[in-house]
Structure formats: structure tokens, C-alpha cells
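Re: Re: C-alpha cell formats

Sure, here are both.
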Amino acid sequence: MSQTPLEGIRACVFDAYGTLFDYASAAARCRDVLGDKFERLTALWREKQLQYTWLRALQARHADFWQVTGDALDFAMETLGIADPALRERLMRLYLSLDAFPEVPDMLRRLKAAGLKTAILSNGSPRMLSAAVENAKIADLLDAVLSVEDVGVYKPHPRVYGLAAEQLGIEPAAISYQSSNAWDAYAASAFGMRVVWCNRYGQRPERLPGKPDREIRSLAELPALVGA
């Protein structure tokens, strides 16, 4: 895939979980209790979290991401035979203070210095996103933090991507959208955004509408692709 810079980009919009914030960090901080189950819990928790967003969207039975995250954790813990209410409470609390990936603050500073608008567009509820942004100390580097709660449906519904264009006042073709989730990257491309797929996890290309314009392994590579 070409790594030549994208032209005409006026804003960079980011997915949150897995892209800016490391969703695995919650379970990783509980290794003292989880032991060798922490990786399996992380994977199953994330898998069910995403499944529940898609299934709720299809059923038109929306619940915010905090509830979905808790429901997914309950499923994962029961599947792995973990019956520990105190651990559940600890894991949910830790999800409000996930680690940002190390390159994130400097990357955002470079984008802002170049005059680009920056925003988060996430399934996360406003409370969850506010907590994550505050914990990462990046609030002053973002022009907007947008939640799907404003449209009442989860990604990859087109209304979600339209929210970013509407709130920023920038046409989709002038927005570079970054996600570590391949399905999310492809959906944003199909909507009309330019897309840089941050393929942190070595995923294979999807067979879905849309196609990322660029592929990177770390957001540290992004500024050079958008002229920053």
C-alpha cells in the first residue's frame, strides 16, 4: 500500500478503544488475580463487547457502551469460570482509566501544530470517553470528543461517521479517519472518509465495502501521512 501523503486533509478523527487507548491494559493490571487467564479474558471480553454492539444495533435495542462493556465482561468471566464480584468491579473501574498508547500525546501535538483539527469518534459513552481522555491528559489536544450516544446507534452505521463530519463542519473527503479495527476502517472509507488503518494487531484485510487509503502499525507514522 502506498505511503505517500494524503492531500487535502483538514482533520484527523480517531477511534478510541484499541486505537488511542489500550483496552488490554485493564485485565493486564489484574494479573495478580487473573494469572494466566488475563489474556483469554481480554480477548473474550473484547470479542463479546463488539458483538453486543452489532447485535443491539441490528435489533434496534440500544444500550450505552458502559452497559455493553459490563455485559460482555460478565459473559467472559462466567465462560472462564471466574466468580469474583470484587474483581469485576475492579476491571470495570480500570476500564475508565485505560492506558493510552505511548505515541499518542506526541502524535496529537504534531497534528495540532500543523493546524489540523483532531477528534475522537467512539462507541464509548460520554462518561467513559471523558475519563479516558482525562487519564491520558490529552483533552487540550482534541477539538471534539464524539460519542455514538448522539445518534443512538453503534458503528459501523453511517450515521456515526456522519456525526464527525457534521460536528467538525468538514466534508468527509477532507477527514482522515484512524482505527485499529479493520471493520471500522473499511466502514469509514465506504462512508467517504480518507482512512489510515492503524493495524496494531496484524489483522488481515476485510472483504467489506470500502478500502483504507493507507496502513500503518503505529500512530507515530500518521503525521507524515497527513502533512504534519
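Second one below.
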Amino acid sequence: MTSGRSLELYFVDGKPDGMLTAEVFNWTGHVLRIPRTRLADGLRRAEAGQTGVYLLLGEDADGPLAYVGEAEDMARRIGQHAREKDWWDVAVLITAAGDALNKAHIRHLENRLVSMARTAGTMRLENGNQPGGSSLNEAGMANMEGFKDTLQMVLPAIRVDLFQTGRRSADQSDMRSESATPRPVFHLAVPRHGVDASAELVNGEMVVQARSMVRPAWVGNPKHASNYRELHEGLVEKGIILVSDGGAVMAENYAFSSPSAAAAVVSGRSANGRTQWKLPDGRTYADWEAEQIEGAAP
């Protein structure tokens, strides 16, 4: 079981959508998010002049867009981007206490972040070729991988989802603590439409299992649950839902934020996952949840 971590957010402007810093206890990293409307003030901060990796986030005529870069003086580099790139509206600066990152560190981190963003596929990248790696030794690479793992916790907490993906490996889905109770396996079947899917609840996510048979296309009202329709279409485009001969299967385990999100994508239409996902004995997800809540009551 993953240990809890403590994240400290400081809202520099006293506003949730303004400039903020993010730090984690016992982590050397430091994250600064700067709205472009506060860019001049943000780039005057000491950490902006340090060595680090930065993200530019925004959108152009084709939708959300991002850029991942590195610099030994981020304030100067981002100032150049402000003159040359019009599409971005948020900059995220990633540094370490005491300006501890060097050129090899940030080249390694930039390379890993670009790879992760491309794998996640949640936003287009303006980056052209894959940036080169670095000459870090084995210990240095291990340190930066640990740095990156904590960063993956921090960024979603400040609404940076560039690296978030629902893909789950078999190893991730099988992880259980020794004290954990067996996870229930839920099923959703619509035989006349070729739907026969299984899912497990893992760390608060509904993970639909690979080889589940799902609807090959969205058939619900396009005006309803448009976010789920876009999610279904995106999974087809990425090959996570493999379509062939009028049917479709999940090519890999994929995590959804709720039972209804999972049910909608599996069914190809709006769906109440709390009633449609069922255990082998016929109990619905809602029935199972009610039992868990009752059992947890003092």
C-alpha cells in the first residue's frame, strides 16, 4: 500500500487560479505555477532564475497544447517564449532547493517528461523531436526517477494533467497489501450489443480489464455525456479500444474515475455505473458500496 504524503500549497496571490508554489515534505523539489497574466512578477522570483524544467500549457486553434523545456536560467528562456509563442497561458517551473539541479539532471527529466506526455496522450506537444538523454550515472538516474515519481503526485494536485493516463499495467492492477481484502470483480454485460466487460475497484479507480468486450462506437445522444463520448473516441483513436469486424475489445487495463465513466465507455452511451456494474451474485455496485459503508460505521 502506498504511504501518504503531505503536500503544501502556497497561494501567492491568495487566489486559487493565481500564482502558487507546491512542495512536499522531505522532497527537494519545488514547483511554481505562473499564470501568464502574472508572468512578469513570477519571473522575478528567485526560483525562476534557477536551473530547471518548465511546462507551457494552453491551447491553439486545434485544442489543448503543451511544451516541455529545460534551461539553466528559466526566467530568461520563458521570457523568450513569451515573445515568440502566443498560445500558452500558464507556465509551470520545476526546480530543486538550493538550485541543486544541474544540466544533466534537467536533460534527463525533460526526456522522461516528454516521453510520459506522449504516452499519456492527453494533450498535443509542441516539442518536435524527442530531447536527448543525459550522462547521469546509475545513482543520479535513480535519484531523478524518484524526483520524477513525486512530481507525478504534485502536478495533478495543481491541475496539471499532462502526464495522467488511465493505462494500468497488470503489475499495477495486481498490487495488494498483505492486509488488503480481496477486491471484488464487477461485470457489465449487454449480450445483444456484444458488451461483456469486467472491472476491479483499485485505489479508488474503476479499472476495466484487458480483453473486455465493449461497444465499438458511441451510440448515445451526442448532446448527452459529451465528455464520455470524447473519452470513448479518444480510446479508440489511441488503440486502447481495438475495433474490428463490428466489435471491440479493451487492448489493456484502463482506469476510470468512476463506475459511471467506465460503464458509459463500455456501453457506448450514458450509463449509471452504480446499478449496471454487478457482482457474480447479482448485487450491484450500489448494493456493495452500501454494505461497505454500513460495515465502516462505528
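The CA atoms of residues 218 and 230 lie 9 Å apart. The chain has two domains: 7-157, 170-296.
- S.
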